[in-house]
Amino acid sequence: xxxxxxxxxxxxxxxxxxxxxxxxxxxxxxxxxxxxxxxxxxxxxxxxxxxxxxxxxxxxxxxxxxxxxxxxxxxxxxxxxxxxxxxxxxxxxxxxxxxxxxxxxxxxxxxxxxxxxxxxxxxxxxxxxxxxxxxxxxxxxxxxxxxxxxxxxxxxxxxxxxxxxxxxxxxxxxxxxxxxxxxxxxxxxxxxxxxxxxxxxxxxxxxxxxxxxxxxxxxxxxxxxxxxxxxxxxxxxxxxxxxxxxxxxxxxxxxxxxxxxxxxxxxxxxxxxxxxxxxxxxxxxxxxxxxxxxxxxxxxxxxxxxxxxxxxxxxxxxxxxxxxxxxxxxxxxxxxxxxxxxxxxxxxxxxxxxxxxxxxxxxxxxxxxxxxxxxxxxxxxxxxxxxxxxxxxxxxxxxxxxxxxxxxxxxxxxxxxxxxxxxxxxxxxxxxxxxxxxxxxxxxxxxxx
Length: 449
What we know:
The protein has two domains: 126 residues, 3-Layer(aba) Sandwich (Creatine Amidinohydrolase, Chain A, domain 1), CATH 3.40.350.10; 247 residues, Creatinase/methionine aminopeptidase superfamily (Creatine Amidinohydrolase, Alpha-Beta Complex), CATH 3.90.230. 36% of the residues lie in helices and 18% in strands. The strands form five sheets. The protein has a six-stranded mixed sheet with strand order 4-3-2-1-5-6, sandwiched between helices. Helix 11 packs antiparallel against helix 12. The longest helix is centred in the middle third of the chain and has 28 residues.
């Protein structure tokens, strides 16, 4: 057996070495914060999901449908709150026009399903599947079509000649299977009905979103203070690591005994705050790993999407470590003005494209056209990017309860920097609300080491 000394030697470390990772020393003393908004519940209650199913059933009834097949993970999570790990394994939820949903799922999730509120389900062993169902299989055999299996499950429950919906546009091959298996039934795309439900957030969803953003604000504040404390001795990687550690410790302290490792607790949590410095900020969607030492004169982006119970939103702040030249100051000021303008205009009844045009015009009027790379914003939901979009070609009319990102960034690749704030904007009757509380000011964002 390899001794510790020999093992360390193979990694290039001396056996007497101290901590192997530099960043571990930076985070060792991080203490959780107490955030008043971080109070239970940390996920939507089961009754909320039951009501969501009933709202969807009302839409099915209005269309004269007897039920709907729900295959998209976002829709399944929205209607049931089960938050299973999504892979290539097919997973279907059937929502009848009346009564409780029925699951058709992979066997590795059977214990999760049995302990959740949707009690009726069937399962297959694994994908690709061969053999029987609702039991572990041991023999190799002919590959089974799991969409057909699910349809046969609907037929034996009396839906063989029903008018059904499905949350996607049926492809020709899928329709061929459907007609062969259920020749007397019909299939209609209901994906837009579910999307419309997810776009308009309920009071409970907004309350959970506010909790996630309160934690997000604290993480951004921590990241800024961490930079000011450690200055040029650290990398953007160190900032990311420390901020995520802070956020995790803070949320876990608030959740307490709720985090016990059991199913259906602490679900939908994402604490992915990031940091990038220098030229990496000049790319709207960089593809490189971030490991740059902080330096004076650099742009520094702290950003992320924090979620609790599946709900949350964006929070970015475009920082700059002094000194700044005149062009840098102008880009930062104009992009901040664009960020605020979008929120101001995000009221019910306005078209997405009207907001986009007004926001983009600020950069154009300032003579900064060459630094514009993208639309001001996208809708925000459990999937991150959700329709509609604050874009020139989107004619969608804003409605109260919609939420959007808030990121009309400006980028100067030649200069080696870019600025891109973002927030979660809640569409209101008179104007949009920036739900994040992290300042968008020079005092917060222009750093002096």
